[in-house]
Amino acid sequence: MNVNRDRSIGMEEICTHFRDDPSRYMGAVTPPIFQTSLFTECSGNEGGMEGRYVYTRVSNPTTEIAERKIAEMEKAESAICFSSGMGAISAAIMHYVKKDCHVVAVASIYGPAYRLLNDYLAKFNIHTSFVKGDNLSEIEECINDKTTLVYLESPSTYLFTIQNLGELSCVLKKKGISTIIDNTYSTPIFQNPLSFGIDMVVHSASKYLGGHSDMIGGVIAGRETDIKEIAQNERELFGAVMSPFDSWLLLRGLRTLPLRMKEHMKNTMEIAEFLSQRKEVKKVIYPFHPSHPQYTLAKKQMSGASGLMSIVLDLPGDKIIKFAEELHYFYRGPSWGGYESLISTVGAHEETDSETMLKGLVRLHIGLENPEILKEDLAQAFRKCAL
Ligand SMILES: *Cc1c(COP(=O)(O)O)cnc(C)c1O
Q: What mean pLDDT is reported for the chain?
């Protein structure tokens, strides 16, 4: 079935069938991995960035299937894949900045994106003002006549600060300022920022889009004109192109994305409620838990929340580490978005709260295990660290 744009289709059909075309691939239901560097000039070579395929740094048929699916999911005109989330983020930022310009960004964004804006771009005399991100006036106050870009991440992935996307894009459009949002947390299943007027969406495909903790990748979705320029400049020149094999893994991940997201959300809602009842837990931070200070806004602009959440533990740093070590089903490690539950004790040794971290903060990724088992696991680990 070659499902195309004319039909009104849901996320499930986009993920399973959109732009798949077995008749092009000898009937194979799974598209082949076009593991090739170059394409020859011959009849039958149609498509690609230049009207035909030329070279895999420029375009590749396996990668293009993933790009078209993700564009459709994000309600974007076009999308383009990169070899990592940071490859996509740096390309998107470089597309919008120029020498001597000014950027406003949310302080609790992904760490390397913060470093790119705060440290690296200084060599082009590009400076960034960082804001908490939970109110418009703070952002407006930072804007000056050199501001070309506002960089958002909503929700951010430790503190889960949320930006009001509709309100922000309306104000910034009038000022001619462009907006990028990192939508990795929500995935296109739970939030479509372009529908609120945001200019460009970036994703780390290494998280839920891939979904099996077996690949590194990134995606940008946005207007056709912007994506074309990025393809010819930031992707072709910097070269952070997604490999055909990773594109194939991404396609495999996308087929079950709607199912997985539903399950991550169901499990995480249960765990968040369970943890909010525990005396060791000072605070639960999850966009869809009623205790979140921006719960109403979250419900308004997101159709769901994913499997990542934070808690603040009322325990000394060494007890927090012990708690993590006692867990059987939560691996200790960075990243998230796969099938597995994870714990990161990032705030265990913070002395005080800051704009980007809270003292005692522990981040949990709730995987696809049975939530009853995860609750039992958390309860036994709490018992072992009782003071
Ligand atoms: C992991 C992550 C990134 C970076 O993606 P990579 O694929 O690791 O380069 C960017 N943003 C967020 C929110 C992330 O969690």
A: 95
Q: Beta-carbon neighbour count of residue 115 at 10 Å?
A: 12
Give the pTM: 0.96
Between CA 369 and CA 20 the distance in angstroms is: 31
CA nearest neighbour of 59 among 81, 42, 84, 31: 81
CA 330 to CA 374: how far, in whole Å?
8
DSSP 234: I
> What pLDDT shows up at residue 48?
82
- The answer to whether 280 and 314 have CB atoms below 8 angstroms apart is yes
CB of 183 sitting under 6 A from ligand 1: no
CA angle, 175 then 176 then 177, to 5°: 90
Q: How confident is the model at residue 20 (pLDDT cuts 50, 70, 90)?
A: confident
φ and ψ at 146, to 5 degrees? -100, -5
Whole-number Å distance between alpha carbons of 79 and 202: 10
What is the C-alpha separation between 300 and 284, in angstroms, rounded? 20
Can you tell me the distance from the alpha carbon of 68 to that of 79, in angstroms, rounded to the nearest whole number?
A: 7
Contact 86 CB / ligand 1 (< 6 Å)? yes
Ligand 1 pocket: which of 106, 110, 250 to mutate (most atoms <8 Å of CB)?
Answer: 110
User: 296 CA distance to ligand 1 centroid (A)?
Assistant: 26
Q: Pull the structure tokens for residue 128.
A: 């960034």
Task: Report which DSSP code applies to 224.
Answer: H
| Tens-place pLDDT, residues 96-145 | 999 999 999 999 999 999 999 999 999 999 999 999 999 999 999 999 99
pLDDT(387) > 70: no
Q: Which secondary structure element, helix H or strand E, spans residue 276, and what is its range?
A: helix 257-276
Cβ contact 106:163 at 8 Å? yes
Give the mean pLDDT of 324-339: 96
Closest by alpha carbon to 160, among 262, 349, 293?
Answer: 293
